[in-house]
Write a structure and sequence with these properties.
6 helices; cytoskeleton; mainly alpha
């Protein structure tokens, strides 16, 4: 009986241990705050797409370049914030797992101590059971011996003392048999109580197994939801990174276009300076020609010289005109290149706007996924909390039943100790009586031997006169 009670206690301790492990291993799913991104209306991409550009080309290129740099820096900062917050969440989960492992390591020696104590109690109960079986065997042997003594004493009815002793022994045997029957009745009652406790324990074990299955299903659902959310977040991160990679070469292209525009503007400035110098020279030459025409009449002597000078100046002018035409052609080519670059810039701006709209759509989808995941997580939390409360109520009821069973076991142990003391007292009395009976039997055997010897002497004395008579008869 004690062994079964100890087994019930061990199983209840195992149920408690499983409950503690379930509370320790149950994941607290929380949607990380790192996934709350900035809405598209507040991002730099949306502002760039909705803002009108200035009119001048150089200012337009500078504005675009600055905005792309700012937006790229903002996107890089947002990505770094996401990764840092994800690493913070991961570190939190790692710290929680370490704390749980430390709790398990701290509970393992306590569990080992409880197991050792239960094994010791079980061994003690087995030893007590063996002692009880030995005492029962001794009682049976004493009953057999007393029955034999009773049968032997019936033959010798000629002594009153032996009859009185046998009657006393019979009374003691009856009392012992009645007490043995009472013990058997109490043992049967205790066995029935143990069977009831077993049935209750089996029912509680079935309920605990059902609760374990339900908790396993809830944990499996939580794991699936968390895995799906993480997979979707990773997919959105990959898409966001791909879009950023697509947008990465745009600042370089803008830089190249800006450099080409600066070079073209420098060449244009040089051409304008050259044309301005040539125009100044032409004005000077015209003034000189006016002065020369006004002074023709005065300077006839120097006409030949002036004609030569005019020819030289004309040749220089023709060369300068040719140079001016070449410069004008170069300016036209540069203007064509500038127009082409402006077309490229417009094309890149259109593409940049498309990518910005796509990024805004992706951010909206990310917000929707976040809201759905938070709702699912809230539902799973509510379910897990309700199940945890229900399990706690059930466990409290089981603990109350265990306390009652412990109290009953203590009462049974007290009754067992009392019965054991009574049995020991009766066994000692029976042993003393048995020793007295053996002593009396020995005295009886000695008396019988003395009677036999006296009877043999009497027979020998009777045979002697018979022999004398026989001898006289033969003599006659």
């Amino acid at each position: 009986m004690e062994g079964e009670v100890k087994e019930i206690q061990m199983e209840l301790a195992a149920i408690r241990r499983d409950r503690m492990n379930l509370h320790a291993l149950k994941p607290d799913f929380v949607v990380p705050t790192s996934l709350k991104l900035v809405p598209p209306a507040q991002s730099g991409l949306y502002q760039q797409a909705t803002r009108h550009l200035p009119l001048s080309d150089s200012e337009q290129c500078k504005y675009l370049y600055k905005k792309t740099q700012k937006d790229s820096n903002q996107s890089d900062n947002e990505i770094m914030i996401l990764f840092l917050q994800d690493t913070d969440v991961k570190s939190k989960y790692v710290d929680e797992e370490k704390i749980r492992e430390d709790d398990i390591d701290y509970r393992i020696p306590q569990i080992a101590k409880l197991r050792e104590e239960l094994i010791r109690a079980k061994n003690a109960a087995d030893e007590e059971r063996l002692q009880r079986e030995k005492y029962e065997g001794k009682l049976k042997d004493l009953e057999v011996k007393l029955n034999g003594l009773c049968n032997s004493t019936i033959v010798e009815d000629y002594r009153k003392k032996s009859n009185e002793e046998l009657s006393n022994l019979k009374k003691q045997l009856r009392d012992a048999s009645e007490e043995i029957e009472e013990m058997k009745i109490t043992i049967t009652e205790k066995n029935e109580q143990l069977q009831e406790y077993r049935l209750k324990y089996l029912q509680a074990q079935q309920q605990v197994e059902e609760y374990k299955r339900q908790l396993d299903l809830i944990e499996y659902d939580n794991k699936q939801v968390s895995d799906q959310i993480q997979i979707e977040i990773q997919k959105m991160k990959m898409q966001f990174q791909e879009k950023l990679q697509d947008l990465a070469p745009l600042p370089d292209l803008l830089k190249g276009a800006q450099i080409q525009l600066q070079e073209a503007r420098q060449l244009q400035k040089l051409a304008e300076d050259n044309t301005h110098e040539f125009s100044n020279e032409l004005h000077r030459v015209k003034e000189k020609l006016v002065i020369a025409v006004s002074n023709l009449n005065q300077e006839k002597a120097e006409r030949t010289k002036l004609i030569d000078e005019n020819k030289a100046v004309k040749s220089d002018l023709e060369e300068k005109r040719m140079e001016v035409e070449d410069l004008n052609r170069a300016v036209d080519d540069l203007k064509c290149n500038v127009l082409r670059l402006e077309e490229k810039l417009t094309h890149l701006e259109a593409r940049y706007k498309e990518k910005a709209t796509e990024c805004a759509n992706f951010l909206k989808e990310i917000d929707e996924c976040r809201n759905e995941s938070s709702r699912a997580a809230a539902k799973t939390r509510e379910r897990s909390e309700s199940m945890r409360r229900y399990m706690q109520t059930q466990i409290s009821e089981l603990e109350r039943q265990l306390i009652q069973s412990r109290a009953q076991c203590r009462a049974c142990l007290k009754e067992r100790d009392d019965i054991r003391q009574r049995m020991q007292i009766q066994v000692t009395n029976l042993q003393e009586n048995f020793d007295m009976v053996e002593i009396r039997l020995r005295t009886l055997q000695n008396q019988i031997a003395s009677l036999k010897s006296s009877y043999a002497v009497i027979l020998a004395n009777e045979e002697d006169p018979c022999e004398i008579n026989m001898a006289t008869c033969t003599c006659d």
